[in-house]
């Protein structure tokens, strides 16, 4: 309960410190063969608006989809429509997961893979922040190459056997470790590459692996792990796997694209994922976000 209260307090403090995002102008849509998808909680609305607006200003264009996790009110939806120019809004309850787990962001991944039939799709978490140009991301989108954010430095895409060796001495009480240790035992005809990436920011190629790929991987992993595959984290493992086994899939270079963890070189980052564990540590997130919001407001005043 204490952790929940502290998280809510820190989130509201962040929203107050970065309240200027509500005064920034609405996004003006620019047509492009790209869709940006985010699952959004009502409590994280300010964070999400900063995430999507800071990212969109570095892109040639694209469409926006908001996935309502069930907490968005009509007032939230009205605010999103004002700032994002009538985005597509879908409820996760309307997305069938089939043989894959339910919850734990699986609805989001399957929805994204369904939409790759018509466009390139980027998954953007509400706690992402873009502070500068992102040419590697733009090039990946234009080249129809899947990508993922890395979860730590020095973690390239590797074969499944190497991925398992990298975590051989890690604590197998955690489902992600057990899953990564089991990767070499996937069926021989399965994709053979993996990276310890982050599903907080990932791109999926148009015409690339679709829902059937996620279902096949999930089924194979559940056969190996049993009920523990239903635990939190299986969607991220699946996202990593699908990106790595897409044609020319890539892991974005660290620290230009990174997660905010102790010791990270934040001054070199163009995009940062402020993951929950360290999100509000030392006030870095609020300082960086306020700088981005101030730049947006300054751009508006200069027009």
Description:
Helices cover 39% and strands 16% of the residues. It is of the alpha/beta class and 303 residues long. The protein has a seven-stranded mixed β-sheet with strand order 3-2-1-4-9-6-10, with helices on both faces. A three-stranded mixed β-sheet has the order 5-12-11. β1, α2 and β2 (63-68) form a beta-alpha-beta unit. The termini are far apart. The model has no long low-confidence stretch (mean pLDDT 95).
Which terms would index this structure?
303 residues, alpha/beta, seven-stranded mixed beta sheet, three-stranded mixed beta sheet, 12 strands
Architecture blueprint of SSEs:
Elements: H1 2-17, E1 34-40, H2 45-56, E2 63-68, H3 74-84, E3 88-91, H4 106-115, E4 120-124, E5 128-130, H5 135-142, E6 147-150, E7 158-159, H6 160-166, H7 175-182, E8 193-194, E9 197-204, H8 211-225, H9 234-244, E10 250-251, E11 257-259, E12 271-273, H10 284-302
Parallel strand pairs: 1-2, 1-4, 2-3, 6-10, 11-12
Antiparallel strand pairs: 4-9, 5-12, 6-9, 7-8
Helix pairs in contact: 8-9
In short:
This protein has helices at 2-17, 45-56, 74-84, 106-115, 135-142, 160-166, 175-182, 211-225, 234-244, 284-302, and strands at residues 34-40, 63-68, 88-91, 120-124, 128-130, 147-150, 158-159, 193-194, 197-204, 250-251, 257-259, 271-273. The chain is α/β, with parallel strands linked by helices and 303 residues long. The chain starts with a helix and ends with a helix.
